[in-house]
Design goal:
By secondary structure, the chain is mostly helical. It has seven helices and two strands, in the order H-H-H-H-H-H-E-E-H. The chain has a two-stranded antiparallel ribbon with strand order 1-2.
């Protein structure tokens, strides 16, 4: 099975058939798709200016979508490297029990579904890199009461999600399943009750 970088080379290769280039970009999402495969594809298509069902998009638009995906992937891989280094140091120092961020991170290793969007048509509008930077910043500070990506205050608990965990707080504005470790216990309780959250 081809890796992300070899698939990315095919997307950029003008000697490749356009259908293969589009297919290779879709296959990249099996390796890295922060919003999930379908939502990330919808996001990339809308940002690059071609339709999700467009079978022969402008090759320059395919490459623009790939550029955004690669930039976001490099941000996430840098975070994962720092995360792994921190866990190694913690284990060396005798801290064996992982925390809530570690539990969440285990489900998203590699960058698939880190900001899962259960509805593929509702996802953050900003570039993937910006969304991931905001999410990473939230993971590295004290928990808050709003969506870390868009600062949306309306979080609703949803069940039967198509990704692990199977339930969680969903931002009504940008559609991500907000990682539980970035929210206070009070914010999680409010989301479960379905009430509007307002930051202090």
């Amino acid at each position: 099975m081809a890796g992300f970088r070899s698939l990315a080379r095919q997307v950029r290769d003008p000697r490749c058939d356009l259908a293969l280039r589009r297919y290779s970009l879709r296959k990249c999402l099996e390796k890295f798709a922060p919003y999930g495969h379908r939502a990330t594809w919808d996001h990339l298509c809308s940002r690059a200016g071609f339709g999700p069902e467009d079978r022969s998009p402008d090759p320059a638009r395919l490459v623009a979508a790939l550029d955004e995906l690669e930039e976001a992937r490099s941000v996430w891989l840098a975070y994962e490297a720092e995360f792994a280094q921190r866990r190694k140091k913690e284990k060396h120092d005798g801290l064996r029990s992982p925390g809530s961020v570690d539990d969440w991170h285990r489900l998203t290793w590699g960058g698939f579904g880190v900001a899962w969007c259960d509805d593929p048509r509702i996802h953050p509008r900003e570039p993937l890199t910006e969304a991931l930077r905001r999410l990473i910043a939230a993971l590295e500070r004290e928990p808050g009461t709003v969506c870390p990506v868009c600062a949306g205050e309306r979080l609703t608990w949803k069940y039967d999600l198509a990704h692990e965990p199977s339930s969680g707080p969903v931002c009504a504005r940008c559609g991500i399943v907000v990682p539980r470790p970035v929210l206070t216990p009070e914010a999680l309780a409010e989301a479960k009750r379905g009430r509007l959250l307002v930051s202090a």
